[in-house]
Please model this.
Amino acid sequence: MTLMKHRDISLSDDEQGVCSTVGCGKTPKRSIPRKRVEKTGSLNLQGSSRKTALCTDCYRIFKKSSKKDRTMESLGR
Ligand SMILES: [Zn+2]
Model:
C-alpha cells in the first residue's frame, strides 16, 4: 500500500494577487490575519484562508473600524 501525499502547494486565496474583499479586485498591499478583519465586521471577505490580503483602500476601512473597536473596548472597562 502506498500512501501518496499530495502537498497542497496550489495557490491559495492570498496568492492570487487581488484584495480579499468581495468585489474589490485591487492589488493587495497588506496582509492581515483573517480573524482581525472579521472582528471588525467592516469588510466582506472572500475565500477561507487564515490571512487576508487587503488593498490600500480596504486596509484603511479595516484600520478605521478596528480603531473604533479599540475605543469601544476602552469604554467597556
Ligand atoms: Zn480592497
The beta strands are 30-33, 51-54.
